[in-house]
Amino acid sequence: QVQLIESGGGSVQAGGSLRLSCAASGRTLSTSAVGWFRQAIGKQRELVAVMSIAGITYHADSVKGRFIISRDNAANTVFLEMNSLKPEDTAIYYCTARSASSATFSLYTRAIDYDYWGQGTQVTVSS
Q1: What pLDDT digit, counting tens, does each position of 104-118 carry?
Q2: CA nearest neighbour of 8 among 22, 19, 24
């Protein structure tokens, strides 16, 4: 059974930083395409950042230059470093991984491309 457990969410003021972690069990993340999505109240789930098996990354324009996705293969954990946070970053953040065979260098940017999801962690940014 695959489980993704997020942690690190919380409440911060605008301009602050948070680091989200996603620890996996039952699935080796180094052989999976992984990503972070978020969903604000009343809005659809949207892409934040994704990483291919080879470590190639893609960040949404809204977070580019402020957020960084990374992976620690030894710890089987994916991270999302979030800096210069803005009130519009307020959302529930979800970690995700693919179960299907993934091309090593391919980036998967749609939520439908992913099979495993964490329970989500709330990030609230106040102005």
Answers
A1: 889 999 999 999 999
A2: 19
* Burial grade of 121 (CB within 10 A; 0-12, 13-18, 19 or more): buried
Signed CA dihedral, 63, 7, 35, 94: sign only: negative
**Among 88, 79, 86, 74, which residue's Cα sits nearest to residue 15?**
86
Two structure tokens written together for 114: 């992913």
Q: What is the pLDDT of residues 4-59, one digit of tens each?
A: 999 999 999 999 999 999 999 988 888 899 999 999 999 999 999 999 999 999 99
Cβ(36)–Cβ(49) under 8 Å?
yes
